[in-house]
Specification:
Radius of gyration: 16 Å
Strand order of the largest sheet: 1-2
Helix content: 55-70%
Largest sheet: 2 strands, antiparallel
Number of domains: 1
Structural class: mainly alpha
Order of helices and strands: HHHHEEHHH
Strand content: under 5%
Number of helices: 7
């Protein structure tokens, strides 16, 4: 296992797209290489929301009679990639309590307002959207102030 972990780390260091993705909080070597391997440059999706929906990180919609009802996440798409993003989001949220940057403050406030697991899924969906933007535009991620 350690040999495979070293191999994945080496691939992540050598690939420019994976290095750009690893600048995002909550995305490490394994998640970055899995994203690059699965979605490539992201041009199969029109926007980040489509990627998040493909990964199953958006609420299911049960609407009838003009009344919109949003349910649990759909869990469609690649379960492995979704679980990697969720694990990264959990790590980000657990580390956010000790940080003061805008993303950490947002994550902590969201967890207080909506609950831990909803915040984790929201962070994972946000990371998927930002990963799509990084891959499709080919630009480095700039952390907000």
């Amino acid at each position: 296992m350690a040999q495979y972990d070293r191999h994945i780390a080496q691939i992540a260091r050598e690939d420019a797209r994976a290095r750009q993705l690893m600048q995002l909080s909550g995305i490490g070597e394994t998640t970055a290489t899995a994203l690059v391997a699965t979605i490539g440059n992201g041009h199969d999706f029109r926007n980040g929301r489509q990627l998040a929906a493909w990964l199953g990180l958006v609420p299911g919609q049960y609407s009838s009679g003009g009344k919109t009802r949003l349910g649990r996440i759909t869990k469609a798409g690649d379960a492995y990639l979704r679980s990697l993003l969720v694990m990264g989001a959990r790590a980000l949220l657990n580390a956010a309590k000790d940080k003061g940057d805008s993303v950490s403050r947002w994550a902590v406030e969201l967890a207080q307002r909506r609950g831990y697991w909803r915040a984790v899924v929201a962070i994972a969906a946000k990371n998927a959207r930002m990963a799509w933007a990084v891959l499709s535009r080919g630009e480095s991620f700039v952390k907000p102030a």
